[in-house]
From TrEMBL:
UniProt-recorded name of the protein: Aminotransferase class V-fold PLP-dependent enzyme
GO molecular function (one): transaminase activity
Organism, scientific name: Gillisia hiemivivida
Keywords, alphabetical: Aminotransferase, Pyridoxal phosphate, Transferase
InterPro entries, sorted: Aminotrans_V_dom, PyrdxlP-dep_Trfase, PyrdxlP-dep_Trfase_major, PyrdxlP-dep_Trfase_small
């Protein structure tokens, strides 16, 4: 564990419990970024001419990691750009199912258009609520976060696969930003139609990169209108009108997309199964400790499966107190949010619990 922590210099000065807000940059990703810009500095267009080859390698690395053919891997700069492009390719008369109070980048984007919108409630019965809403409304699309950003409530991929098989005519579009990088994920086997995810959180890939994964029949159901000269770049976007190119109309940033590749290589060196095991262990311990202190909302307490994101109540005063202890977290209404990645430790949970007891005894 000490060797794993060495790769993240920020851990030397903080008890860093804020991965759900900003994932730490590893030394390996930082080294890639330095080397990349050094090559650009000394070579200019000679290096730029290798752009297509670099992006091909990125797609192949991403595709291999998530079990998705590289010609179905989109490279975009953030979740919102990809999601909004997708929505522009959907018939305006479509009915869309959302989760009430899901991530604003999902719900605001949908509600800013003329779609017929229905909702499922996020609580301890989330799966039942989703199934009932799918049965009642028969939506054209179901757009949702796999893991909720405020309190960490998580949908299991086995449940999502079951729902997709039960409602095959509904297009399942998932935000995986708070999910990818936390456990092994087989995209093709999941049956989810589209996954869009930024890489700066749990992938620890830095800012300015996100991925889109598409099932094979999705181009028949979505018709985005964006296009540009670089929509034709590389062997996976070689012909005019290709589907990936509609999500990638401009110059692609090899610094940021290459960072995803570097991050995946580092994850592979650690082992995604080890990462998953560590996160589940930390999540279990944290939930037990927070329950003892009575800090968790009922919807979280009553669920058997949970992510490693928790909202522990409090306000800006609690956040300020934790910051004074070099414990880094976020303020997310209705409380302070903490989140644990594989490089966190059980001892850090103990330090947090001690600090919380001190704060609440004041």
């Amino acid at each position: 564990m000490k060797n794993l922590r060495k790769a993240f210099p920020a851990l030397r000065q903080y008890v860093y419990l804020n991965n759900a807000s900003c994932g730490l940059l590893s030394e390996k990703v930082f080294e890639y970024r330095q080397d990349h810009d050094l090559d650009l500095l000394i070579s200019g267009s000679v290096f730029r001419d290798k752009q297509g080859e670099i992006l091909e390698k990125v797609r192949e690395t991403v595709g291999d990691f998530f079990n998705c053919a590289p010609n179905r891997v989109g490279l975009i700069h953030n979740f919102s750009s990809g999601f909004n492009t997708l929505l522009e390719g959907i018939d305006k008369s479509s009915k869309i199912l959302l989760l009430k109070e899901d991530y604003p980048s999902i719900n605001w984007a949908v509600n800013s258009r003329e779609f017929d919108v229905c909702y499922a409630k996020i609580d301890e019965n989330l799966e039942k609520n989703i199934e009932n809403a799918l049965t009642k409304n028969r939506p054209d699309l179901f757009c949702f976060s796999i893991v909720q950003y405020e309190n960490g409530i998580k949908l299991e991929t086995a449940f999502l696969k079951e729902m997709k098989e039960k409602f095959p005519d509904t297009l399942f579009v998932a935000d995986g930003t708070q999910f990818i990088g936390t456990e092994r994920f087989d995209f093709d086997a999941s049956k989810i139609d589209v996954v869009i995810a930024s890489g700066y959180k749990w992938m620890n890939a830095g800012y300015g990169n996100a991925i889109m994964l598409f099932q094979e029949d999705v181009p028949k159901k979505i018709d985005p209108k964006r296009f540009g000269f670089n929509s034709l770049q590389g062997k996976y976007k070689a012909h005019k009108g290709n589907f990936l190119g509609k999500f990638e109309p401009g110059h692609q940033d090899t610094l940021n997309f290459g960072s995803v590749m570097a991050a995946i290589k580092f994850i592979n060196s650690v082992g995604i199964d080890l990462i998953e095991e560590r996160i589940k262990l930390l999540s279990k311990k944290a939930k037990e400790e927070f329950e003892k202190l009575g800090l968790l909302e009922e919807a979280v307490v009553k669920r058997t499966q949970h992510s490693s994101i928790f909202n522990i109540g409090g306000d800006d005063k609690l956040l300020e107190f934790l910051n004074s202890k070099n414990i880094i977290s976020s303020l997310k209404t209705p409380g302070v949010r903490v989140s644990f990645h594989y490089f966190n430790t059980e001892e850090e949970i103990d330090l947090l619990v001690t600090a919380l007891k001190e704060y609440h005894q004041k």
